[in-house]
Design a protein that fits this description.
single chain; 5 helices; elongated
Amino acid sequence: MSNNNDTNQIGLEKADMSEVISKLNGLLSSYHMFYINVRGYHWNVKGEHFFTLHPKFEELYTALQIQIDEIAERILTLGGTPLHAYSDFTQHTSIQEDKNVKDGTTCVRGVVTGLQTLIEEQRQVSTMASEADDQGSADLVDAYVQEQEKLIWMYNAFLG
């Protein structure tokens, strides 16, 4: 592995990584917005499915916290700086805020839509990372996609 000014600390071309880092920062922003939405669902859900959904939403946002940290650490590994201000997240996210949602079915629809958006964005990250020989980033988001596809199936089963 060469360690010149054209490569980062793990031997990948800095020029190629700038686009991947930018895409990962967009994904990080989307994860933060989705996390905030899911916290809102957890806090505000009401109705007959409260006892089912309240803990499921907590389980989901807890997993999202871990994924947010892993994405930020990947950005650092590639030599970038992870976005960390809410104002940056709102400018780079692909997920919209979902305010004041209380109905369980509407909350679950919001979860499904958020997961679908993350999956689409992660597939783009995976393609770009693979083209830049960044297997680490591709593997990271590919694992998330596989897990989230299963979650979509489960939440859609709840919706009937």
